[in-house]
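Q: How do we represent a protein-ligand complex in a form that can be generated cell by cell?
A: Start from the inputs.
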Amino acid sequence: MSIIRVALDLPLPQLFDYLAPDASTEDIGYRVSVPFGRNERIGIILDWLDASDQPVDKLKSATVILRDMPRLPDTWLRLCEFCSRYYQAPIGEVTSFALPPMLRRGKLPKLPRAKKIKPDKIKPEPISATVLPTVAIDICAEHAPSHRPPLLMAQQEAVRQIIQADTFQTFLLHGVTGSGKTEVYLHAIAAALVRGEQALMLVPEIALTPQLEGRVRTRFPQANLVVANSSVSDAARARGFLEALASTADIVLGTRLAVFTPMPRLRLIIVDEEHDASFKQQDGVRYSARDLAIWRAHQHNCPIVLGSATPSLESFHHANAGRYRLLALPDRAVAEAPPVVRAVDTRREKLQEGLSAALITAIKQRLARGEQSLVFLNRRGYAPVLACAACGWISRCQHCAANMVVHLADKHLRCHHCGGACAIPHACPDCGNIDIHPFGRGTQRVEAALIEQFPNARVLRVDRDSANNPKKWQTLLASIHAGEVDILIGTQMLAKGHDFPKLTLVGAISADTALFAADFRAPERLFSQLMQVGGRSGRANLPGEVLIQTEHPTHPLYQALIDHDYARFAQSQLDERKTAGFPPFTFQAMLRAESPAMGDTVAFLMQAREAAEQVALHIIGHPVTLFDPVPMRLHRLMAQERAQLLVESNNRPALQHFLAAWHPALHALKRHRKVRWHVDVDPLEF
Ligand SMILES: [Zn+2]
Ligand SMILES: [Zn+2]
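Then emit the C-alpha cells for the protein with zinc ion bound:
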C-alpha cells in the first residue's frame, strides 16, 4: 500500500488519507490535488504510510502530486505543526494560510525572475567571529553615502553581540526613536550576508514603507531582497516565496505573514517594533508572528533580535529574568537631545475645541519658525456620537453595541466596527427635533478647529479615512517630507517609523481616556503610543517638544514619559500585573463564541465550561483556572451576540496540555447550528 496523509484547508483538526500508488516518503512536502466531496482540493502531503487506519475501500485516490514546485522543507512543515498545536488551529488551515494564495490554489507564478549573480555571497574561507564586526561595518561602508554617521559605542556593542551569537539567542534591542536601531539591524544583516546566510526581517504592517524597503535595497545592492506583505501582488508573493525556498533570496522583509517564508539558510531574524499588536493575527489562525519567529530562531539555532523603544512587558520581563539578552541603546544617534516632554494641566482651563492655550502658543511658535507641528488624537471621524438633547436619542449602530461616528467630511454616520453607514439625519429620528449635535471630538473636528485657529497654516489630516490605501498614504508622506504641511493632525498612523525632519512639536490631546480603561493592556499601549509619537519630534538637530494635555498631570505614566524612563514605567506595570495575576505572570487562552442570540452563545460556553472542568481534573501539577462565560465588551458585532470564557494557568505547558485535550471536546459538543466559536491563545484583546 502507498498512502499519503494530506493537510487540507478545512476547519477540521484531522489529516486525510489518500491512495497514491506512485508516492513515497520522498513526496512529503509536495502539494497534491485530491478529490474532496464533489470538489478537487489542493493540500500538502505531511506523511507517507504503507497502511491506513481506515478501511482501504473507503479511501479515494489522489489526483496528482504537484512535483513542479520544490518540496516544502521539513523545517517549514514543523513550523506549521507547531503553530497548529500551540494556537489550536487546524493543521490544514495553517499550512494553507502559510502558503501564498497562488501556490495555495495549486498554481505557480509565470516568468520566474532571472537569478541575480551574487559575487560576494559565498566566501571560500570562514571568517573568525572576532573580525566580523569590522567586516560587516566595511561591507556597509562600501555603499555608504558619505553623510552616514559612524556607529556609536552602544550600537557597535549591540552589533558585535548579535553577529557573534552562533546559536539560538533572543536579544531585546531597546532604544528610543533615533537611537539607531535600524543601523544595528542593517549591520547584523550585512554580517549574515557575508557568511552566505539568509536574514528575515519582520515589521508591523504600517511601518513597511517603500522608504524602508529602499533603504535595505540601497544598502545591499548585491543581495536578492524579497518583500512579503499583503499589498504585494499574488504572483510577486509566490515568486518571492519560491526564491526564498530555493535559497536564492538573501533577505526577506515583510509583515507578520512573512514569518512563514521557508528559508533553508536562515541564520538571523529581526522583529522590529516587537511590541506592536499587529504581529498578532486577530482572525483565522490567531498566531503571534513575533512568538513564532522566536520558535523559528530556536529551530534554526540562530539569533533573533526583538527591537523596540517600548518593549512589550512580556519581552521586558524575559530580559529582566535573563532569558533574553538586553541590548540597550541609550543615546539618540540622530538628534542631539531627546524631546522635552511636558504635561499640560487642563483641569482649570477652558479648552478651545480641545486645544489648550499652551498648545496653541507652541504651534504659533513653530509656524513663525517654519517648523512642523503634530496634533495627536487617536480617534478618527468628526465626533464619536450624534445626540439629541431633547429626547436622549444617540446614533447607535443597528448591528453592533457601538455608536455610529459622525463623519462630517462626507456627511455620513459610520460604524467603525462593522463599516455600516448612513447619511447624517437632519432631525432626530425619534422626536423630530432639528437641534441635534455631535458630541466629543475626532480628528476631523480638530482639523476644522486648527484651520479656524490658524487660517494661514497648511493643515493636513492623516488617519485611516484620509490615507485609506498605500498610494494615498505615500502621497501624504511625500507632502509632509516636502515641507508642504505646517500642522499635522492624526492618529497613531503617524506614530510609526517615519522621520519628519522639520517636525519639532507634538501635542497629545485626549490621552487620558486610556489611563483608566478596563483593558489591563491599555496603559502599556498608551505609553508606547505617546513615546512613539513623541519620538517623531526633534530630529536632525532641531530640539523637539511634546505637550500632553491631561487632567492627571501627576499620573506615574506621564511622569515616566517626562523623565524618559521606560524601565520605571515597565517595572511598575509588571508589579501591578504580578499582584493582579495578569500576563506575563500567567498564561491565558480565550474561548470566544457568537451567534444571533446571546442565550445560544452563552449556552454553548456553559457546555464548554463543563467539558473544561472534566479535562482540567486530569491536569496534574499546575492548576488551570476556568472563568465564567461573560459577554464581550463589544457584545454585539455585525448582529452577532458575542461572549467569551477565559482559561488561565501560571504554567504554559499545563495550559497547552489542557487545551490539547479540551479542543477536541469542543468540536464534539452539540451546539446551536448558528453558534460559531474559536480559541485564541495568548489573546491581546478582551
Ligand atoms: Zn430626539
Ligand atoms: Zn456596526
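Confidence is low (pLDDT under 50) at residues 116-122, 124-135, 137-144. Residues 388, 390-391, 393, 428, 430-431, 433 surround zinc ion (ligand 1) (CB under 6 Å).
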